[in-house]
Amino acid sequence: MKKFLSLIIAVILTLSLVACGNDTTKNEQTPPSSEEQGSESQQDAVELEDKLVIYSTHPEDMLEFLAEEFEKETGVTVEFINLRGELADRVRAEKENPQSDIMYGGASSLFIDLNKEGLFEKYIPTWDKDIDPMYKDSEGYWYGTIQTPVMIFYNNEMLSEEEAPKDWYDLSKPEFKDNIVTRNTLSSSIRATYASLLYQFDKEGKIDDGWEFMKEMESNIKNYYGSGSLQFQAVGRKEAAISYAVLSSIIDNIEENDMPLTIVDAESGSPVITDAIAVIKGAKHPKAAEAFVEFAGSPEIQAKLANDFNRLPTHPEAIKNGKQWMKESNYKVMDVDWSVVSEKEAEWLQKWDTDIKDGNKEVNE
Asked: Where in the sequence is the signal peptide annotated (predicted)?
């Protein structure tokens, strides 16, 4: 991968030489476009701070890889803190005195919500123009770097295709009693999934029917797990046949752990979470933070995460250079207005946790 900073320095030197032979005054110059703003920010990033702090929900092996690559690229030392279910609360609590420079990971609905609270700094990277609008904030406050479908799957040694659920709504059927296991709602993907399911009823003005569905589905859930590895182990040892998780994790367990799993392309579609990144407002290392956004969303790094960590990119060039299953992914996408979900998710999930979920099913080890 070409070194970003070497390119930036070369660009600056070239521009300087051009400027020496140009009599045009500053007032006569054309204002920079939004795309050029990202390039100018990169130029500023030549003089980066020596440290960067990242709050994240991503696995530590992936964060360690990114930290090492970014340090090689820039010389900046990266400190990452994995917060998972506590990420949003931590960023909010530190609003007046941020201790992190980057928020990396979590559903777009969460980023939409936090952006409304003025917690992010605008930054437009050079690859902005290549990203589908559905994967980014229209004003440049956050960007999706990973697209994360959440899909139903089942142990095909326990259920045949005919017996298995065909859609999310099937999970409330009596025949699946005690035959479902899943993550608890500390998982941001599970929170986004439940909010997406409730949104299907809310948009039709039938939220009470949605809660009835959630109650019936919950009665079929045998256990909730505090980690994805425990969740998949439970399906693998045939504690229950059915679960739902992010697509990359399902494929990881099929390919690496040889688990007998079949993925369901749900009839009503699967929620597709945009896993995002943003610069935190008031960051103590703002130039290094902008450089990391440029780095993390680049097609080169997205392709590395695709091939080495099975993460489905948002950048189309990275998809072309990713794994074969990514190029062939054509699952149905559930209709979700994430701006609405961002407004209602906290209220809905509180009701789920207090009124619907059976806490006696919680298993953390």
From this structure: 1-21
